[in-house]
Amino acid sequence: MPREHAIAMIDHQADACAELGSPLYAALLHRAARDVAEGGPCAEALAGYEDAPGPAAIALRLLGAVHGLVLTGRAPELAAHYPSAGGSFDPAGADAAWSAFRATVAAGLPWIREWMTRPPQTNETGRANLLVTGLLRALAETGPLPVRLFELGSSAGLNLLADHFRLTAPGFAYGPADSPVLLADAWRGTPPGWLTGPQPELRFTERRGCDPTPIDPRSADGALALRSYVWADQPSRAARLNGALALAAELPTQVEASGAGDFLGQVQPAEGALTVVWHSIMRQYVPKPEWARAEAELTRLAEASTPTAPVAHVAFEPRRVGEEHRFLLTARVGSGAEQVVAEAAPHGVPAWETDV
Questions:
Q1: Over residues 260-278, mean pLDDT
Q2: Residue in 21, 38, 65 with CA at minimum distance from that of residue 6
Q3: CA torsion, points 75, 77, 78, 80, in degrees to nearest 10?
Q4: 259 burial class (0-12, 13-18, 19+ CB within 10 angstroms)?
Q5: SS3 letters for the chain?
Q6: What is the pLDDT of residues 62-92, one digit of tens each?
Q7: Pick from 156, 155, 162, 153: which is nearest to 127 by CA?
Q8: For position 322, what pLDDT does the model report?
Q9: CA 333, 339, 341 angle in degrees (round to 5)?
Q10: Model confidence at 1, in pLDDT bands (50, 70, 90)?
Q11: pTM
């Protein structure tokens, strides 16, 4: 039944939040699932989305909508429990936080119902950790060429600016030392030896992205949407986002309102440059026919790659390994073999060497 499906999806997201270090959202979502079962305000907020597939991420849409109300000052009682708004969360006080959350949903249904029509847009900057690593791995194969960068599922285009981020780990640092975006503890322990040696400075001659519903990070509405989708009790992620928004204000990027297939159809290799297609945690949101078109274009580009005009495909996406979904970084140059370069937490930090 649709309602049972929705309850299962919300509980599943609650478990994921607990595993990924968000006790606030884990507590709220488990209670929201019960509220849906009982026909409460959360059931009304999600009406019509009960049988939405997992990639629709209805629980994250609900959380984003409510967080937007908190960040705009329209839910002061709930803000007292949200670290992102200056509050604090004590698991012992989860029932009080839930009471404020439920009241906020009931009072803010028009806002929440409109928000539910939007796809989740996190544009998680932590994933640049993997994208930069994959690009460096490709450059190790092609030599230190200038880079033409094309991103699929760019959202607000923040990770198109990944070369302006700072990555650090024991014995490793890469990127501008004064960057407002610091990916600290980028690796679990010491990074692999090939990464800790001398690395080329990234030189981009072109950087473009695509997204079916791109966000303008320089607009107030766009910045609010991005901030609302960062989990309210994870300040390090919020700090990274704020730094990336500051960079985007100074270094605007180009993100086309386009599907992946149409976008890649415009891309050709270029002599004397490495053409890179990269993406992170977006594949699950792409309809199957659209991804089939994208794969056909990726195959075309791989076959057109030459030693003097190479093409690389860098991806950080979940893959099923046995009974598990694991988040793997892969890189391939031309028609060569795909390399599994690393594994990481879904938000990109930390990464580690993998046994896959």
A1: 98
A2: 38
A3: 120
A4: buried
A5: CHHHHHHHHHHHHHHHHHHCCCHHHHHHHHHHHHHHHCCCHHHHHCCCCCCCCHHHCHHHHHHHHHHHHHHCCCCHHHHCCCHHHCCCCCHHHHHHHHHHHHHHHHHCHHHHHHHCCCCCCCCCHHHHHHHHHHHHHHHHHHCCCCEEEEEECCCCCHHHHHHHCEEEECCEEECCCCCCCEECCCECCCCCHHHHCCCCCCCEEEEEEEECCCCCCCCHHHHHHHHHCCCCCCHHHHHHHHHHHHHHHHCCCEEEECCHHHHHCCCCCCCCCEEEEEEECCHHHCCHHHHHHHHHHHHHHHHHCECCECEEEEEEEEEEECCEEEEEEEEEECCCCCEEEEEECCCCCCEECCCC
A6: 999 999 999 999 999 999 999 999 999 999 9
A7: 162
A8: 83
A9: 115
A10: low
A11: 0.95
Distance from the first to the final alpha carbon of the chain? 37
Go through the chain and tell me how many residues it has.
356
Q: How far apart are CA 80 and CA 82, in angstroms?
A: 6
**CA nearest to 146, candidates 202, 208, 198, 199:** 202
Write down the mean pLDDT value for the chain.
96
